[in-house]
Amino acid sequence: MAESLRFRLVKSLIGRKFPTVKGVSTQTVHFWKFGTASSPETNKHADDIGKLVILDARGPEEYAVSHILDAINVHQGAKLTDVENTASLLKQNEQLGKQSVVCYCAVGFRGSTYAKALSQYLEKENPELLKTVQVYNMEGGLFKWANEGKPMIDHKNRSTTKAHPHYELIGKILLSGNIMALHPEP
Fold it and tell me: Where in this chain does the record put each Rhodanese domain (predicted)?
């Protein structure tokens, strides 16, 4: 599926704001998570994965509507979870070898913010861990993932096609069709 002009613009703006954060496509994350390639680009990343850790940097209301299977919500109230908690999780997994940490949010700003903070924390507090941990932001965030029809679950672990818009105007611009939902299904 061709990337829309809207998502190319968002990707470019986020890339300029966070030049040190590595981006990873939704296709590659889908391949890493589910093992099914949807483009030739995923093949070049096949050996890079190690243990996959997916971090959702959106608010609890957004996470309740939909998220990627096994994603850990790292947002508490109005403040992102202290990256120390994530670093501790990665340290516990260290004996597993390589780890790929994918951060995401609605479109990429909060995911990039968290990816940058986590990378900086690891660089300062645990540089040895950075030898086996790669931190990424998922380009286009959950909006792109949802628009591509990739699998998501809600707060009750049910399959869903809905995505919380974060801000309603942004949702109307970036979410296609009838996939916007402000609240999870009961």
Answer: 48-154
- What's the pLDDT at 10? 84
User: What's 166's DSSP letter?
Assistant: S
- In this structure, are strands 133-138 and 152-153 parallel, antiparallel, or unpaired? unpaired
What's the burial of 169, exposed, middle or buried (CB within 10 Å: 0-12/13-18/19+)?
A: exposed
The domains located in the chain, with CATH, are 5-174 (3.40.250.10)
- Residue 177 is predicted with a pLDDT of 66
Residue 99, beta-bridge partner list: 51, 133
- Residues in Cβ contact with 126 at an 8 Å cutoff, skipping those fewer than 6 apart: 87, 91
The dihedral formed by the CA atoms of 33, 118, 72 and 45, expressed in degrees to the nearest 10: 0
